[in-house]
Structures are given as structure tokens and as C-alpha cells.
Amino acid sequence: MSRSRIHRRKQSGRRLEDDFSRRAKRDGYPARSVFKLEEIDQKLRLFRRGQRVLDLGASPGSWTLYAAQRVGREGKVVGLDLQPHSAALPPNATIEVMDVREIAPRDRFGERSFEVVLSDMAPATMGHRASDMARSYELFMVAMEIALTVLVDGGAFVGKIFHGGEFQEAHAAMKRHFKTVRVIRPKATREMSYEVFLCGLGKRPDAPVLPEPQPREERSGSARGSAESAQSR
Ligand SMILES: C[S@@+](CC[C@H](N)C(=O)[O-])C[C@H]1O[C@@H](n2cnc3c(N)ncnc32)[C@H](O)[C@@H]1O
Question: Is the distance from CB of 117 to CB of 157 less than 8 angstroms?
Fold first, then answer.
């Protein structure tokens, strides 16, 4: 590709990103990532009124706010994140500050207590591709294990993962536990990002309830202030 063509592509990518950011602000969402969830929702018909939704990696709060609006007042959204949120949330939504890798989901929420589990968690990118991929895979698998514990039979899980590294293993695991699995890269994703969303619909009734994930002592893979997590919002 010629240099001027690369330049033009970068320019139009940036214009699209600015456009998403402007629209998010106009619509009252703190981050443009809301359009990723909106596209996934439009493709998969993820939400119904009255549902209970668990949102992992929820700050600054766009996905939580969007999900809360979609499930309505009779539904409920519980968000968890390392960092506090900035979105003004309606009464049916909360975001608590915590490391998702530290929670014991069965004790905290009980089994089969949510219809939808979302994870937009992203690791602190180190600029070393293999390490970034490994951290993303780890966060995805923690989220999937939580989903398998707390989802009702037939429930849905959407999880962010970097494409590369152990992506195929994660995809295969999803296929074992969900009737339908889709890989979606929403238009609002930054052009340079590796991220895609693995979406599982119809949690199989025979999906084993997995042992509680072990709390990790080493937290360096988390996304406090990370480049990719901040940029990917
Ligand atoms: C891309 S942002 C999420 C944006 C959010 N979905 C929204 O629409 O506002 C990724 C988030 O994952 C969170 N995160 C990363 N690792 C985490 C962990 N171990 N536990 C909880 N949150 C984590 C980061 O703090 C960051 O806020």
C-alpha cells in the first residue's frame, strides 16, 4: 500500500473515532465504547426487559448505562471495575470498585443469578505483543468462568479478547459451553486495536459449574490506567 493511501486510511479511521466520541458525549455516555455494545446488541438481540446483567470491567460506565436502559426499571445491572465510574447511573444500576480476579462468584452472587454477563475488561498493554495477548486471554477466561457460574441456562456472555495468542483456545472453550458462538469486531473499535468480542448465546444446561477462580497474588496484568484499556473505550 502506498504511503499516501496509508495516510488517507489513518485519517478516515481517526475521523470515524472522533465521530463516535462526539456521538457518545451528545447521547450522555462517558465513553465511545457504548457503540460497540450497541452494535453487538443489534446483531445478537442481547437484552430483554427485566433481565439481570453483570458487567465486568465496567468503568467509566457506558456499557452499564446502556444495559440499564435496555433492561428497564424492572431489570438490574451490576458493574465491577478496578476504577470508579464517572457515568450518572439510573437506580437499577451500580458499579463497585474491585478486582474481578479476586471475587468468589458463587458466594457473592449465587449460581444462575444473571441472564447476561458482559466483559469489556482489557489488560495493561506493555507494548510486548505476546504478553499483552496472554494477559487478555487470562482476563477473558476469568470472565468466562464467572459467567459459567452465574448465568442461567440459556444465558448470554460477551467477552473482549485480543485476537492472536490463545484466541483459538478461548473460542473452543466458548463452543463447548454455548450453543451459538459469534466473533464480532464492532465498527467503533479503533483501527490499531487487536480486540474482538467472543459472544456466546444459549449457555448449555450441561455446562459444568466451574470451581471458584483462585485469587491471584500478582496483579500486574490489570488495567489501571492502561494504554489499551483507556484507548479502547
Ligand atoms: C475498556 S474499559 C471498559 C469500558 C466500559 N465498558 C465502558 O463502556 O465504560 C476496560 C476496563 O477494564 C477494567 N479492568 C481491567 N482489569 C480488571 C480487573 N482485573 N478487574 C476489574 N476491572 C478490570 C479497567 O479498569 C477498565 O476500566
Answer: yes
- Dihedral sign, Cα of residue 84, residue 87, residue 88, residue 90: negative
> For residue range 65-98, what is the model confidence (pLDDT) as tens digits?
999 999 999 999 999 999 999 999 999 999 999 9
Answer yes or no: is the C-beta of 38 below 6 A from any ligand 1 atom: no
Provide the sign of the torsion angle of the four alpha carbons 36, 41, 46, 49, taken in this order.
Answer: positive
Mind telling me the catalytic residues? 160
d(CA 180, CA 178): 6
* Ligand 1 binding pocket includes 54 (Cβ within 6 Å): no
Q: What is the CATH number of domain 3-231?
A: 3.40.50.150
The C-alpha cell of 188 is what? 467503533
CB 76 within 8 A of CB 49: no
pTM beyond 0.85: the answer is yes
Q: Ligand 1 mean position to 4 CA, how many Å? A: 36
Domain boundaries, the chain: 3-231
Q: Ligand 1 pocket: which of 222, 226, 231, 232 to mutate (most atoms <8 Å of CB)?
A: 222
* Distance from C-alpha of 221 to C-alpha of 51, rounded to nearest angstrom: 31
